[in-house]
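Sequence in, structure out. Go.
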Amino acid sequence: MSRKANKCPLCQMPQSADFRPFCSQGCKDRDLLKWLDEGYRVAGPPADYADSIEGYDQD
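Output:
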């Protein structure tokens, strides 16, 4: 059975052992910026922040 080469999830270049699962520091940084800029989201209605805090009392 042949093993297919793992590719960078952003640019599809071969992965680098130093930056796994990415191919370079640049792709690693771009992925982090996408997380910080809320580029990755789960579809659904907006969450109410107060409801997500356990023990939060609005009174």
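Check: The longest helix spans residues 25-36. The chain has a mean pLDDT of 83.
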